[in-house]
Amino acid sequence: MPGIMIRNQPLEMVKIDKDNLSELNFWSNELKCELEELIAAVDEVGNSIQTIRYYFRIVQAD
Fold first, then answer.
1. pLDDT tens for each residue of 10-43
2. Dihedral angle at the C-alpha atoms of 23, 27, 28, 29, nearest 10 degrees?
3. Count of the separate structural domains present in the chain
4. What count of other Cβ atoms lies within 10 Å of the Cβ of residue 49?
5. Is position 14 within any domain?
């Protein structure tokens, strides 16, 4: 069974382009966070969507 695919890529391969406002808005909506929070997360842990999702699970658990 294949994993989640976005833009014909497995989720673990998807990267957030923080210079692309429409992409940031998409992921901000998808992750239910503010745009500034998303940019701060990318700056903190990198642009892998898998890492960003994990980061928000940890932050929201605190």
1. 666 789 999 999 999 999 999 999 999 999 999 9
2. 110
3. 1
4. 20
5. no
Q: Which long-range contacts (CB under 8 A, 24 or more apart) does 3-11 make?
A: 6/49, 11/49, 11/50
Half-sphere exposure of 32 (CA within 13 A, CB side): 4
For residue 53, with 0-12 CB atoms within 10 Å meaning exposed, 13-18 middle and 19 or more buried, which class applies?
A: middle
Q: For residue 2, what are its two tokens?
A: 């294949």
- Are 10 and 4 in contact, with CB atoms under 8 Å apart? yes
To 10 degrees, the CA torsion angle through 60, 25, 12, 45? -50
Structural domain harbouring 47: 19-61
